[in-house]
Amino acid sequence: MRTVTFADPRVVDLLNGRFVAVWNNHRVDRTAKGEQAFYSREEMAAYPEGGGGNNLYTLVAAPDGTVLNCLRGYWSADTLLAELEFSRGLTAENRIERQAARVRALQAEEQKLAVDHPAEAAKRPRDSAVARRRAALNLLALTHTPESLAIPGIETMLVSIADRSRTRVFV
Amino acid sequence: MNALWCALLLAVLPDDGVAESIRHLGDDSAEVRQAAVQKLKAQGRPILPDLERALPGERDPEVRARIVLVINFLTRVQWRTDLPTALKAAASEQKPLLVFSTLGPVDGFL
Question: A140 to chain B nearest CA, in Å?
Answer without folding.
Answer: 16
